[in-house]
Amino acid sequence: MSICAVIPAAGRGTRLGQGIPKIMIEVAEGVTVWHLLLRRLRPWTEHVHVVVSPDGAGPFRELAAAEIGAGTVSVSVQERPTGMGDAIFGAAGHWAAYETILVVWGDQANLSPDTVREVVAAHPGKGLTLPLVPMAEPYVEYELSGGELVRVRQSREGDECRPGGLSDVGVFCLATEGLRAAWERYAAEAAQGAATGEVNFLPFLPHLSRIGGLPVTVVPVADPDEARGINTADDLAFARQAYQRCRS
């Protein structure tokens, strides 16, 4: 099974006040979120594709110059911030030749290498495979019924997520056969998010399950800290402390 990791990292990290994309933020001297993600993904993927903003393109290409030069990493630019779905599927030309894509958010500094390994091992080569973790107060909640993913609730779009619900850890494994065409059909008819005005990627997943009939494989994750991306100064401090604990 050939796998391409796809990292949408076109955000500008404005809430952090760092002036750089979150994927380029240092968690230790000389160690960025990018370096951590690459270490976790490299053993399980043939290629890594990163989607960046116009402002982030030059700095990121410099940061990842060695891997880009070796042909193991490629970069594309999302010209306008129109959402994760557009970032992922706008880059389809870079990943469509692979059998599977492993989508990973560009701020997941706390992602465990064990989770990546278990997701790849569990993926049956079709449908979608999701690592999910129970959260006391989930920001995003996945609702399953009888092996079917029926809904994804998103706090940022005004949905109410239930205490103890299942959340993702910023990793999504999908078979590529027919995937781009399925997204194009979905995006043509899907409602825009109530708050963001975007056609979001996450509601596409239950669409694939309910409408597309694709199988859903869930990989249980025990540690809710894996779901914590870097969105605030507190998140960044937590990621830095967690990195130091792992190093000690």
Automatic annotation (TrEMBL):
Keywords: Nucleotidyltransferase, Transferase. PANTHER family: N-ACETYLMURAMATE ALPHA-1-PHOSPHATE URIDYLYLTRANSFERASE (PTHR43584:SF8), NUCLEOTIDYL TRANSFERASE (PTHR43584). This is NTP transferase domain-containing protein. GO terms for molecular function: transferase activity. Coiled coil: none annotated. It comes from the Bacteria. Residues 5-124 form the MobA-like NTP transferase domain. It comes from Nonomuraea helvata.
